[in-house]
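# step 3/5: fold
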Amino acid sequence: MNPKVDFYFNKADKWQQAIEQLRLLVLDCGLKEELKWGCPCYILNESNIVLIHTFKDYCALLFFKGALLKDPQNILVQQTKNVQATRQIRFTNVIEVLELTPVIKAFIKDAIEVEKAGLKVAFKAPTEFEMAEEFKHKLETMPALKKAFEALTPGRQRAYLLHFSAPKLAKTKLDRVEKCIPQILKGKGLND
């Protein structure tokens, strides 16, 4: 156990028992405990394997390469349709954790084997994501913007495409595009 992570388990009123049990299960599988993104993260040779995190309605064990894990019982959850690699097992109480202990350990061991084998998740190319018409129009009328956008990393391109296509209203989409143009022209990502 890493003392830097203890605060996370001490502050989680609603999910404290469940996440403490998850912590014990993960540590029993031989992973190193670190604090990343403000959450307990468990690593193998500097590679992230699994993370414990809490939400309003559940706590979860997140597998970084969950899309590569065998899941015959359909336990793993894809958080949203745009999440490509990670998958979660969600819990609403400690009893669920206890009942699923053998399954949880099997997933963790499988995740470790996936990492040891060097397997990678095949991410969709940015061109496979929906492009908001408002952004498409800007790219067509502003060659400098198109050049700057194409120079961004695939991950940064994906983030912008998802950000621009998320709203339902065209005005909101256009507002988002307009707001981000200076950042794209500077070669920056959405969250840089």
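# step 4/5: annotate
The chain has two domains: 3-116, 126-185.
# step 5/5: archive (pending)
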